[in-house]
Amino acid sequence: MARAWKRVKANKGSAGVDGRTVQDTAQYLKQAWPDIRARLQGGSYRPSPVRRVGIPKPGGGTRELGIPTVVDRLIQQALLQVLTPLIDPTFSEHSHGFRPGRSAHGAVLQAQQYVQAGYRVVVDVDLEKFFDRVNHDILMDRLAKRIADKRVLRLIRRYLQAGILAHGVHSERFEGTPQGGPLSPLLGNVLLDEVDRELERRGHKFVRYADDCNVYVRSRKAGERVLQALRNGYARLALRVNEGKTAVGPVWGRKFLGYCLMASPQGEVKRAVAPQALDKLRDRIRQLTSRTRGRSLEQMAEDLRRYVPGWKAYFRLAQTPNVMRDLDGWLRHRLRAVQLRQWKRGTTMFRELRKLGASVDQAAIIAGGARRWWRTSGGVANLVLTVAHFDRLGVPKFS
After folding, report:
1. Side-chain half-sphere of 7: how many Cα atoms within 13 Å?
2. How far is residue 141 from each of residues 144, 158, 190, 220, 374, measured CA to CA in Å?
3. Exposed (0-12), middle (13-18) or buried (19+): which is 295, by Cβ within 10 Å?
4. Taking all residues of the chain, what is their mean pLDDT, rounded to a whole number?
């Protein structure tokens, strides 16, 4: 429990339906924990409903999260720590999501190996609202084959059936496992492992990360056969394939976990950042460097330092250095335009540029282009608002 509390505290997160933050819960548990522990051991503990929160999805629409109370996150985390060493070794080697010692990077590298070996057609399967459609009875049946303790099984079912509170209205839940609780990823892997094993029995080359599954084959005809088998396998689990987002086709340019694969002129398969991920990055940087928020370049640089290193760490597998250098140039171009706009008037711009070491002619040329922020920031302004200038501000680099 102490180790679980350390993890919950580190993850922070918002309050559940009881309104208690992590700090509030720490005080609450000093008095309440003996009673909660007795109810857990006696089998009478009832989880609180989850708080529903909608977050925007990159492709449009919203993803529904269910936020448990901090107490329930603590109990779920403790369950996860006990169950993972018992259950995780039973999972397929092709499953990479939310498992110790595995990651999205491992999944991308494995996909690249399959494609390099000649499996150039992908069956890219998307499940329709997977976490919302999990059938409780089927999941509990699969769990019972791995867990003997009835009290633990009963507690997990109660977490599955804990209601939802949205806009002050409480509703029961008869299917689904809410995204937002520590247990949900493990439960998802338990359910989907059955399809993984079927693919293994058939000798297929595949990679799965949570509910994202890619199967690599040598021809479209083989891919269509695999897709039909997957439809049948998921149907037995009461899950449905999202036909609008599922496809059989060439691997080139197909997005998987933010990456895509490309063929070099020498025939080597290369990893690259998917165009959709690059678009999302640029949109986020536009938000962080918005010219209408009235913030200084120093403040913008601070926000970028919080965001860019994490993005860069995730996409460190990309084998396209030119793309990263282009991002550096685009970001500095944007920041120059922001700076020029903040100075606005030509006289102010002239004075500030001179302070930065611009010659009279350079400052005059740049100031003469006032109000043409983007165009002006790509010309002589490069000689004054240099790479070194942005380095001094602490603007992070992609390359």
Report:
1. 16
2. 5, 15, 10, 35, 61
3. middle
4. 89
Sheet holding 164-166, edge to edge: 62-67, 50-56, 164-166, 169-171
Whether 51 and 127 have beta carbons less than 8 Å apart is answered as no
Query: What span, in angstroms and rounded, lies between the C-alpha atoms of 73 and 4?
Result: 9
Amino acid at 151: R
Residue 124: what are its φ and ψ, rounded to 5°? -100, 105
Q: What is the dihedral of CA 280, 282, 283, 284, to 10 degrees?
A: 90
Give residues with Cβ within 8 angstroms of 331, minimum separation 6: 285, 304, 395, 398
Q: What's residue 297's pLDDT?
A: 85
**Radius of gyration from C-alpha coordinates of the chain:** 26
Q: What confidence score (pLDDT) does residue 84 get? A: 97
Instruction: Decide if 327 contacts 312 (C-beta within 8 A).
Output: no
The 8-class DSSP code of residue 61 comes to S
**50-56/62-67 β-pairing:** antiparallel
Distance between CA atoms of 38 and 32, rounded to whole angstroms?
Answer: 10
Which helix (H) or strand (E) segment holds residue 382: the answer is helix 381-384
Rounded distance between C-alpha atoms, residue 172 and residue 165, angstroms: 9
In percent, the amount of the chain with pLDDT more than 90 equals 70
- Ranges of residues in the chain with a pLDDT under 50 are none
Q: What is the DSSP letter of 345?
A: S
pLDDT in tens, 53-91: 877 766 666 777 889 999 999 999 999 999 999 999 999
Q: Are 183 and 75 in contact (CB under 8 A)?
A: no
Q: Mind listing the pLDDT tens digit for each residue in 98-118?
A: 999 999 999 999 999 999 999
Residues 86, 97: contact at Cβ < 8 Å?
A: no
